[in-house]
């Protein structure tokens, strides 16, 4: 029988990291005035990270006269480098005791340094606590997902959370510092649960903040140019040019458009104004072909049947029940062949069925399918089951619970 002692190895490597004994690598982390030299062992770094395997190769770095390898990482702070080295040496990381911004910086650095298992763990952590992070550091969170294409699952979770509770972002003190690419991600969402005229007002507020910053910069470059402020509307139009295309004007009523948009009509292309006015005057539906519908603001009647099968029971108070045999379904009575079945995923088995004596049926930790007490609102957030094809909050006309019993002969 083979006996392993992984804990002892981790402790020994932790001691090696702390003592720095026999180090041959110096990592210069951070920018002035927060530059720090950090000492490490190239053999461990090369073994644990493909990035360091290349970065510490003879082709990339030369040894000093003292025989040390020196690697400069000005874009990664010393705090982050130390956390990463601790992970590489002994696979230890404690996110619960780190600041929110530090965790986001750690994920970006782990991506740059190609440490996949650390990337996966941090993403899982951020997804689990996505609402907290978006509430505390919404801008940094959005900038992270807009700059890193690999974080698709985190991106979906982040956007879904913001679309369901958009005030977390739009009412934040940091909203005006949001980068254009990140704001574009939000405006492209079809399930953003905010009135279109309110979205428009926030866009104008954001644009004016960028305009003032740009005007100030232009004045610093050319203090004698007194005509800069007279160019305000032109500057604002350039700032908002690509973003205006994402506003669903057809989802505003005529009064909202005239009160909120018309004063800024110089920002809109003439053809767009013509189409919008024709839409209001003629009641035509041509704009639906120009802009996609933002479903988060629509109430569309449906005859769909949504439900779930619980092979256990509903007895219990505020507890989860484990099963791999439950499932959800989505059924269109007019097209039964396209019915959708959503089964429990492997990681969701322990929270497949939720029992609570003050709520209606509940499936999954998302919750994947849940109805509150004394409410006609169902909530769908895929987590414990595969995606069923609907998400968010939905009003229902009625629901029933049936018990399936075996007939005894």
TrEMBL record:
A Pfam family recorded for this sequence: BACK
Domain BTB: 23-97
Record protein name field: Btb/poz domain-containing protein 19-like
Source organism phylogeny: Eukaryota, Fungi, Fungi incertae sedis, Mucoromycota, Glomeromycotina
